[in-house]
Amino acid sequence: MTRTVYINGQYLPEAQATVSVFDRGFLMADAIYEVCAVLEGKLIDCQGHFTRLRRSMAELSMNLELSDDALLEMHRTLIEKNALDEGLVYLQLTRGVVDRDFAYPPEDTPPTLVAFTQDKAIVESALAKRGARVATQPDLRWHRRDIKTTQLLYPSMAKMAAKAAGADDAWLVEEGYVTEGSSSNAFILTQDNVLVTRELSTDLLHGITRAAVISLAEDEGLAIELRAFTPDEAKSAREAFMTSATSMVTSVISVDGHLIGSGAPGPVADKLRAHYLEHSRAHAM
Ligand code: PLP
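Above: inputs. Below: predicted complex with pyridoxal-5'-phosphate.
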């Protein structure tokens, strides 16, 4: 089945869904994005993702005429047209098509909005079952990581370096502290059973899954500290995990080759993953 892609109000076969060479998303990474997970044909936490999209737009003075209801309708149409059961909807908004210039174009320049679906095993993820090995890498990204832009080359380089070191993914480290994963937020459970994840700032993405998991952990009665932690603290933790829309809660079983706990997914991470799945299914749209 050929995939149907959304582009500026139209649903087209993917081969016909093309963007201009002069699009600022292509030339300058002047673009933001969101990824919503899909389970059983329904969207997970999509209102949170739309709210963060609006925040990224405001930080970058970007415009979009579509309301959240229209975005939801578009996501649902894509899911239906592509018969997507499990996977994700990717949305990207760029500042539009205009002659190349560092200055932003006039505010009435029409933006480019594209979206597409992708199949992905989320519930029965092999990585979540086995647990992820992470390798630390220096965090060399820009300093507005709270804005979800498509400047993803460095996270991609860091992931490749982690893979070359025998790991599955990178945890990024700045001034001695873990900021987040290449495409996820990072958590540890200390030997004293305190759940630790970095406080929100411009240093990291404000993960939608991170927020949901913190709230579920609070409901569980877990002690939570919002603070930065070092790679050494992670290596001596009882458990560690990462969160993102499509990895949900995925255990981290080693950091730079040091096994965490027994080197298998831990019970607290497993429980939070199960609760997040349950919560997702109950609130899917
Ligand atoms: N941090 C980074 C750098 C990311 O790219 C992502 C997701 O892509 C996340 C965290 C997790 O965010 P969310 O839970 O909203 O998917």
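Residues 35, 180, 183-185, 205, 207-210, 243-245 surround pyridoxal-5'-phosphate (CB under 6 Å).
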